[in-house]
Amino acid sequence: MAWLYLCLVGLVPCLSLASPVFTANTKKINVDLVSFLGELRNFIHTFIQDQVRSLISSRVKDGLHELRSKLAAKNNVSLNEQSSVGLSPGRNFDQLKQENQTTNESQSESEGIPSIPLINSQSSISEGLYQSDIILTDDQIDQMLENMEDGSNSTRQKRQAVNRYIANLWTDGLVYSFASSASISVNLLAQQIQHISDSLMKKAFLLGVDFWESNTCIDFRESNTARDRVELFSGDGCYSFISKVGRKQELSLGHGCETYGVATHELGHALGYFHTQSRHDRDKHIKLNTDNIDPELIDQFDKQSKYTNDNLAEPYDYGGIMHYGASSGSIQEGKFTMVPLKRQYIVTIGTPIPAFYDKKMMNILYDCMELCTKSDHKKCKNGGYAHPRNCAECVCPDGYGGKNCTTRVANYRIIFLTSVFSARRLR
């Protein structure tokens, strides 16, 4: 094993050491190579994370600990209120699917984006992430703690928190860059492995960029010199800052995060979205099964107040890209933590495919709707609206299609995926 390490880091010639070993036992070398490459990857991640940990201040870490303690105490008090959910901790998707035969969604779709909390639960910086994938600023954690105080602040003070929560939007377009790989002296083989990993990460990120850019009026451009930019890198997990923080801000798509759904979700955070289950009106749509919630992940279910959360007058979307899956944050994998009050949505909650309201709310947030006239929007029926990049085209709600959104369309997720994977970045 020692010769392999010295070879790959370039300290000794590979062939001179490899020849006798390969002739002696080729199978053993293959095993050693796989083992070493795994160790090398872990070393690179550790190297990167030593730098990433500095992104999360001690104030944020302490604040998150305080916030989680308060949330745990609050939920312990209200445990009995959750009995109306009508679920035992052992209920699972298959049992509820039998009760809701009107839907034909698969279990994998219904679980939404459980991969993000699951992947990040193994991250070395998991304790510093809000709701498992958000890096907060000092100002944001202070506002969240203030928001939890019952009646200690005036309405006027809390209303002022709206601007501080949303922070700044990318009004001139989102600027991004790609971080260089860790500067470690490795030979060609190790460099190629890192190159493959970076390629997967960049491809997923650009698919997410393509979705938000082609479905909104938000422009994206690459720049390595802009002061305010999102810098993509392969960290220990999947995470992002919320909105524009006023400097270079990191967005990580580490191992296991290099997918279209995860990239689109994390870019949603960078553009200003919180998680759907954080909405102030979420209790009108879902019930928490607190018996199943892992205490260390309790902040996944932190609910905003109406003073810090503007839903832009749009309905609660169970199937949106920003909603976690029904079993997210569970003590036991696959057991429910969130249950829709409308049971038929149990198998669609938190899909990894962007939905109609993901697009519409982003267009409202960035004033894209104003680029088309009222008559342009009016011609789009059934709640559709004119596309901000082409006002003659309608953006239709899920389940509708046609020129003016008057045609019923089945299996809209399949149609959506087809359009995504035929986008210009995959041609």
UniProtKB/TrEMBL annotation:
GO-annotated molecular function: metalloendopeptidase activity; zinc ion binding
Keyword line: Disulfide bond, Hydrolase, Metal-binding, Metalloprotease, Protease, Signal, Zinc
Binding site residues for Zn(2+): 265, 269, 275
GO biological process: proteolysis
Signal sequence region: 1-18
Residue stretches making up the Peptidase M12A domain: 160-369
Record's cofactor remark: Binds 1 zinc ion per subunit.
Pfam families named among the record's database cross-references: Astacin (PF01400)
Cofactor: Zn(2+)
EC number(s) on file: 3.4.24.-
Enzyme active site: 266
InterPro entries: Astacin-like_dom, EGF, MetalloPept_cat_dom_sf, Peptidase_M12A, Peptidase_Metallo
PANTHER family linked to this entry: DISCOIDIN, CUB, EGF, LAMININ , AND ZINC METALLOPROTEASE DOMAIN CONTAINING, ZINC METALLOPROTEINASE NAS-31
Record protein name field: Metalloendopeptidase
